[in-house]
Amino acid sequence: MTSSDKVRGLIRLARLRHQRPETFAGALAASHEALGPALRTVREAEQAADRRSGVVVGLLTSIEEFLALSLSTPAEMAAADEGAMIRHEARLVDCAARMTEQMLRWAVTPSAPAYDPNVVARRLATLDDLMILISSAARTATAK
Fold first, then answer.
1. pTM score, two decimals?
2. How far apart are CA 43 and CA 38, in angstroms?
């Protein structure tokens, strides 16, 4: 990356900070522009090393969507319309839940599609107690 590329990137980021996306599509374009270089670099490194990580690419893609939803928050909340607020909240929760579900799926496979096949399982093992408590609370609530 040349100095000119870096300067152009900084100008783009400064412009994005001052321009608030009015739509999800605009926010998605902004988040894609912000995270595109990271994803491109990962894919280039993977190609050069002949290694792939569905975990890295999957998480960056999820983060891109979550960032887009976050960037669209001012436009969504501007009118303080209760229906819009409920829809926006549901979209954020849905995005977070899909990312969590994917992490859990990777954790229960024999080896996650990652550079280190055990990276997800090791991290989620520390959350095992919390998952047991959640399951127990759900069973208790259902029994009532």
1. 0.75
2. 9
